[in-house]
Design brief:
372 residues, mainly beta, Immunoglobulin-like, 3 domains, five-stranded antiparallel beta sheet
Length: 372
């Protein structure tokens, strides 16, 4: 190496050694809590499109890098935007969001769990399962699809920039669980990034699903309605899994750790939700007893070939037909009626479960469809 080259290299090294060190970034850990996770999507999405000083030795790989030049912008918590620049190229873009997926679950140093304000029931908006979609009978290998809602047209979330949350479940009894997010919940344009049920084997084995959805940049919008649909597949060998002499077991599914941020990166408190799926031992299905013994609902003729007449003391909203394994076959809406007819043409012959949803609750009847 020539003398002049050595001199320039020496000067460069001296200059680098004199640069201040403001912190270290772990690529993808945009909130600097020690772990790359779905909540980092909220930070990177919020800062999307911003530019600042690049880092020397920029890389999106999962190794710590020194921050020697801070950005002009900071998050309300005081965290500098530099932490959202995962690849260190001086611009927060899709590559930084990709780094979250690439390094997902990686940890560095002490991990501080992300915390958000919890909602107050009856006051704050609630994320909720559509309980009317739960089949009256769930057994081995059943598939259950349950819509998930947050906000209503009458009470929407006014100013949303992103959302992240976790779904926890009993992995011993649930073979597969996924959430198909509805992008329209956060806007009908293309300015979105979705982490849709991150497929991490370790998370799945522990019974957790992580999701996130964010606007790109500070572009808050009004949000309400169906945020997604949860699909659940029950294990296919319940007899071996259920304890002795247990015909039915409640299996919990919960939405936890809900983090919603607005256009100023403030937390919007949200009430969380949990349900229990009553999973039945297949050996006990033949012993299913009609839950309605008080005569408040009459279904006739039963068996039937063409139609069922339903007479109720309660106003009915909807009726649903299911197979005895929990597969939904038909839904018919009823506008607050106490007496009505339901055609059964097209339904398979044999025993079916009829779920009757009224103002006062849900009643399940076993009906028989005869071949014409």
């Amino acid at each position: 190496m020539k003398y002049i080259d050595r001199l320039l290299l020496s000067l460069l090294l001296v200059g680098l050694l004199q640069l201040p060190i403001f912190g270290q970034i772990f690529p993808g850990d945009a909130d600097n809590n020690g772990r790359v996770e779905n909540y980092d999507v909220l930070y990177t999405g919020y800062a999307f499109g911003e530019i600042g000083p690049s880092r020397l030795g920029e890389s999106p790989e999962d190794s710590q890098e020194v921050i020697s030049l801070l950005w002009e912008d900071i998050f309300p918590s005081g965290l500098n935007f530099a932490y959202a620049d995962a690849d260190g190229n001086g611009a927060i873009d899709f590559l930084d969001l990709l780094a979250i997926s690439t390094n997902y679950g990686a940890e560095s140093g002490v991990v501080v769990n992300s915390e958000f304000l919890e909602g107050i029931p009856g006051t704050d908006p609630a994320i909720s399962f559509d309980r009317s979609a739960i089949p009256p009978l769930i057994t081995e290998n059943s598939t259950v699809e349950i819509p998930l809602f947050l906000g209503t047209p009458e009470n929407p979330l006014q100013d949303v920039n992103g959302i992240a949350f976790n779904i926890t479940y009993d992995a011993e009894f649930i073979a597969e669980l996924r959430l198909d997010l509805n992008p329209a919940w956060l806007g009908r344009d293309s300015q979105l990034f979705i982490l849709q049920g991150f497929p991490d084997a370790a998370l799945a084995s522990s019974g957790r699903l992580d999701v996130a959805m964010t606007r790109l940049g500070k572009q808050p919008t009004m949000a309400f309605g169906r945020i997604g649909t949860l699909s659940i597949i029950i294990e296919d060998d319940l007899i071996e899994l259920l304890p002795d002499n247990v015909d039915q077991l409640p299996v919990a599914v919960s939405v936890v750790g809900v983090g919603v941020i607005d256009g100023d990166f403030n937390t919007i408190p949200v009430v969380e939700d949990s349900i229990h799926l009553e999973v039945m031992n297949p050996a006990a299905i033949s012993d299913v007893i009609d839950k309605n013994k008080d005569g408040s609902v009459k279904v006739y003729p039963n068996p039937t070939q063409s139609q069922l007449n339903i007479l109720s003391t309660d106003f009915i909203q909807e009726v649903q037909f299911y197979t005895t394994s929990g597969q939904k076959l038909k839904t018919q809406s009823v506008a607050n009626q106490k007496k009505f007819e339901v055609p059964v043409q097209g339904l398979p012959a044999g025993p079916l479960l009829l779920k009757i949803i009224g103002n006062q609750g849900v009643i399940t009847k076993k009906v028989w469809i005869q071949s014409p």
